[in-house]
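Q: what does this look like with zinc ion bound?
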Amino acid sequence: MTDFPRSLLEFQRRFPDPAACATYLTAARWPDGFVCPACGSRKAWALATKAWTFECAACQRQTSVTAGTVLHGSKLPLTVWFWAAYLMATHSNGISALQLQKQLGLGSYKTAWLLCAKLRRAMVAPGRALLSGLVEVDETEIICRSDDDPLTGGGGRSHRGKMPVAGAVEVQAAGPGRIRLIAIKDYAAKTLHAVIRDNIAAGATVKTDGWAGYPGAPEVNHEPHVIGPMAAHLVLPWTHRVFSNLKTWALGVYHGLRRKHLQAYLDEFVFRFNRRRTRHAAFRSLLGIGLTLKPASYQMLIAPEARA
Ligand SMILES: [Zn+2]
């Protein structure tokens, strides 16, 4: 997709109406022409009575261009979805539901929030590849926000009002590669080993600050880099930069993250970071092109722990 719009004006010219969006979806999903998902036939008609729907000439199965994407079953116009995905993919810091509601002139905050939540749900690709090579691993604390109190600092050594987060960053010659951020319950060896096992490929070399929780992780060459008198940001420069950007982002865009949705927000940050040079891929991923998601109910979205 080399013809991805580079500006808002270009985007507006490219996707002026729902028909243009449907044409894009059709081409993105069936680059070699429509194929019936039921029988594999390539002969189909676009239905005049049902918007953006093909009927298979062989088996009469009707297939919507939005089936299997995050847009499916939505009452919002395709143009609203496309604008939301474009703004979310191209704003380097992302966009909050409130900003989206204002910019797209959506009727209610709830509509905007659900739109954001559905797009954000596409930010974790199932079966994504584990980090490999040399990987920095470290942990930090994020200040959390409650409904009553916008910012609860906790203060002192108390963990109240703070949420522990583990981070992993691939170290490449030119700088950081891909990253992962994981909400963790504590800094115990068992927890940190699970983070390494679930996110880092066997045979990778893990560089840490030498904290007792890391050694002994299975199947990775753990290369503890004991800090001693040296500052942690010198030993693990990329994780520290990622953590710093994460905290700035959390405060700037969301005015602090909520405990309940922490992992979803971390996933958004990771998605954005890992696609910082491929905005067109971000846009397609957000619309759910190329992957099949189970439809998300409102209840599933507000209770992220119920996500599969
Ligand atoms: Zn068919």
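The pocket of zinc ion is lined by residues 36, 38-39, 41, 56, 58-59, 61 (CB under 6 Å). The CA atoms of residues 245 and 269 lie 9 Å apart.
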